[in-house]
Write a structure and sequence with these properties.
Blueprint: E1 5-6, E2 30-36, E3 44-50, H1 57-71, E4 139-144, E5 150-152, H2 165-173, E6 179-180, E7 190-196, H3 198-204, H4 214-231, E8 233-234, E9 242-247, E10 259-263, H5 275-285, H6 289-303, H7 311-322, E11 326-328, E12 336-338, H8 359-367, E13 380-381, H9 386-389, E14 393-399, H10 404-407, E15 412-413, E16 417-420, E17 431-435, H11 449-452, H12 455-458, E18 474-477, H13 478-488, E19 498-501, E20 504-505, H14 509-525, H15 534-542, H16 544-550, H17 552-574, H18 587-597, H19 606-631, E21 637-639, E22 642-647, E23 678-685, H20 686-695
Parallel strand pairs: 4-7, 7-10
Antiparallel strand pairs: 1-5, 2-3, 4-5, 6-7, 8-9, 9-10, 11-12, 13-21, 14-22, 14-23, 15-20, 16-19, 17-18, 17-19, 21-22
Length: 721
């Protein structure tokens, strides 16, 4: 049973400490100030300074009285205020926020002490969020309690003093300790989330559904804005299931922290650009306010960022959280300056890798000039051999989190690519290279002589996106060139032109580590762990849905696993985001807006996407070739991360090469949850495959025959995730 804490107006308590100048620093009369310190591992250290307001006992008492008067909720318990940072002051240490004691092993701020969060993430080199800063709560569910009270499912933040919309916004204005602390010493704090239940909405007088008529919508907006304005809170123009509620900045304060206000029964009802965020909240919470808040807390514990508008934007926020582009100025004036090695702003696109929507790419197409076309292997299919056609089954396996398997150590370009006519290839240097692979013989040294003769006929080409041999020179990213050099003896001295990076780094190392551990940790709650035997993994993966239906912790984990999949998938596309015209907007106007807002941003780097997909594709090709060398088996079809093999059994166990002691062979086809390992996606009768090949029907993808079969070999109406 999850405890809800109800707070009435009886006890006169306040956790406001200090006066207006030092509130939130836990030591009345003093503030923490950061300064440069070369001896510190982080290059900075804080020290206590006198309160800039000359704090006294009287001023502290006056500060408490003033804030209670502003709240207008009498002597009820109010939230501990978030620390205010003055314009001439560096940020406070968020670890020193006032907080309630949190039982060991529980999510900070959560009353869920009976069940584990299921996190298996080890200590990170970057800052932890809830473990080290229990004073901040990432998300809270507010519900209507008995006797006209409001209850919360998290401790240490207080609650509104009355069941009114005015009291709700007054509570938000008071600065409850809601938020997500930085995970890096140079990072920024994220706003927390407040989720309202349907029961509380009814008690507040809010409608069960959003008005569909203009008059009703205007009346609702007027009511909410009036209450927000009275408390000094801005809620923006759009009234929907998800809104930002930000207290107005007080004089001399650099920033006022707000919250994301989620009205659970309204989710998914409004139209407009904000629907993307609401859609993903629905997937995470299914209109269950308590489940949504709980899962957002777990996500914050795992990743250190909130769920923002889309998985791609959340992926971007995670990268900026673990590898901030800015740091606090050493001048201690409250300003931020670029960090060394930060991705630059401004359009740094080069003609051969500018992205499909960029005018540079359009100009190249008009002039007949080639550009880099690195991508996943898309819908490659070959004729079946006689032995394969005689097999009983075709089994599709999917390479799990294939991009996460390569991004952790992948060298990526930091600054703009520079053109050169005299390149010297180095696999540690990110770049786009002009290569001629047409004469390269595809015979891997580790493939046995008996299998080499037919290797080119049964394996896809590693350098192209359709698996066929190239017919002319082309532009290729570093991972493809490196693979062709190492595995097939391509001579890099023949490269005559390139766009290379002068600053290459493993940009996604920390990002990958945090997301991988989050993904693996939640899978472990579903009974799926690293190192499982292949048959045990298949059994655990097959019943994950039943486990989630029977156990609330497993249900939370399943929702987060799906969300984390969306985040890492969206991250790859984020680097080359295209143009999307708004309603009534011409394509030309949309392109001009896109050039200003997207192409000129730090996160528009299509060459980074090219490197990621090239590394992922060649990594999968390595596994295919090694499996072929060990077993003589080759996929009959490949689509992105899906590999379709002929098999004598309706499961993938016969496909997995094993060592003499029964262990799976590293680098070959493996079954498991680790990034780069495979899971069972579908089984279909070989007769169905033969019919599809004869009719030209695709085997894989959303419209392929494999998508309409489950892992039991029988057709189904829906695609299994």
């Amino acid at each position: 049973m999850r405890a809800n804490r109800s707070v009435t107006a009886a006890p006169q308590r306040s956790r406001i400490v200090g006066c207006a100048g030092c509130a939130g620093h836990q030591r009345p009369g003093y503030v923490r100030v950061w300064g440069a310190d070369p001896t510190s591992p982080n290059g900075a250290r804080w020290s206590w300074h006198d309160c800039p307001e000359g704090c006294t006992a009287d001023s502290r008492t006056a500060s408490v009285a003033r804030q209670l008067a502003v709240l207008g909720i009498g002597p009820a318990l109010v939230a501990a205020p978030a620390p205010e940072v003055r314009e001439d002051q560096a940020p406070v240490d968020v670890r020193q926020l006032p907080h309630a004691d949190v039982p060991a092993g529980s999510t900070a701020g959560s009353t869920r002490t009976a069940r584990s969060t299921g996190s298996t993430r080890p200590a990170s080199r970057t800052r932890s969020t809830t473990e080290e800063r229990p004073g901040l709560v990432a998300a809270v569910c507010l519900d209507a309690g008995r006797g006209g009270t409001v209850t919360a499912d998290a401790d240490g933040i207080g609650v509104p003093g009355a069941v009114t919309v005015e009291a709700l916004f007054a509570w938000i204005a008071s600065g409850p300790a809601l938020g997500i602390a930085p995970v890096h010493t140079d990072g920024r704090r994220h706003n927390g989330t407040v989720v309202l239940t349907a029961k509380l909405c009814k008690a507040l007088g809010l409608p069960k559904t959003l008005p569909t008529d203009a008059k009703g919508a205007r009346a609702l907006a007027k009511t909410l804005r009036a209450a927000a304005d009275a408390a000094g809170v801005d809620i923006g123009e759009r009234i929907a299931g998800r809104m930002a509620a930000v207290p107005r900045k007080a004089p001399g304060v650099r920033r006022a922290y707000g919250v994301t206000l989620v009205i659970a029964p309204w989710l998914g009802q409004a139209d407009g650009p904000g629907q993307a965020a609401e859609h993903h909240l629905l997937e995470l919470g299914e209109n269950d306010a308590a489940a949504l808040a709980r899962r957002l807390r777990l996500m914050a514990d795992d990743l250190g960022v909130p769920l923002i508008s889309t998985p791609a934007v959340t992926a971007r926020a995670l990268l900026d959280a673990v590898r901030p582009r800015e740091r606090w100025s050493e001048e201690r004036n409250g300003t931020r300056v670029p960090r060394d090695g930060a991705l630059p702003s401004g359009d740094v696109s080069v003609p051969v890798a500018a992205g499909r929507c960029h005018p540079l790419t359009q100009a190249a197409a008009d002039d007949g000039r080639p550009v880099c076309r690195e991508d996943d292997l898309i819908r490659w299919t070959r004729p079946l051999t006689d032995g394969e056609a005689a097999a009983a089954w075709a089994v599709e396996v999917d390479v799990s989190t294939a991009h996460l398997a390569v991004t952790g150590s992948l060298p990526l370009p930091v600054g703009a690519l520079q053109h050169t006519d005299a390149p010297r290839f180095d696999k540690r240097t990110a770049g786009i290279w002009w290569c001629d692979f047409t004469g390269t013989r595809l015979v891997a040294a580790h493939v046995p002589e008996t299998l080499r003769a037919r290797a080119a006929d049964v394996l896809p080409h590693p350098a192209t996106t359709d698996g066929t041999a190239p017919t002319a020179p082309g532009w290729y990213a570093t991972p493809t060139v490196a693979y062709m050099v190492e595995a097939y003896g391509f001579d890099p001295a023949t490269i005559g032109e390139a766009y290379v990076s002068t600053h290459t780094a493993a940009l996604l190392k920390e990002w990958t580590a945090r997301l991988r551990e989050a993904y693996k940790g939640r899978l472990s709650v579903l009974g799926i762990t690293d190192g499982m035997a292949p048959d045990a993994f298949l059994a655990a993966y097959a019943v994950r849905g039943e486990r989630a239906a029977a156990d609330p912790d497993a249900a939370d984990a399943a929702a987060l696993v799906d969300l984390y999949k969306g985040i890492y998938r969206g991250a790859t596309g984020m680097w080359a985001q295209g143009v999307t015209p708004r309603p009534g907007e011409s394509q030309e106007a949309a392109t001009q807006r896109w050039l200003k807002d997207t192409a000129a941003s730090w996160h528009y780097r299509p060459e980074i996407r090219l490197h990621i997909v090239a590394a992922s594709r060649t990594g999968t090709h390595r596994r295919i070739v090694k499996t072929y060398a060990l077993t003589g088996r080759a996929p009959a079809a490949v689509h992105v991360d899906g590999l379709l093999y002929a098999c004598e059994a309706p499961d993938p166990l016969p496909l997995v090469p094993l060592t003499a002691d029964g262990a799976q062979v590293p680098g070959a086809l493996r079954l498991g949850s680790a990034p780069g390992s495979c899971k069972h996606d579908a089984t279909l009768p070989m007769a169905t495959v033969r019919e599809a090949l004869a009719s030209g029907e695709p085997l894989q993808g959303a419209y392929g025959v494999a998508a309409h079969h489950g892992t039991d070999g029988r057709p189904n109406d829906t695609e299994e995730d």
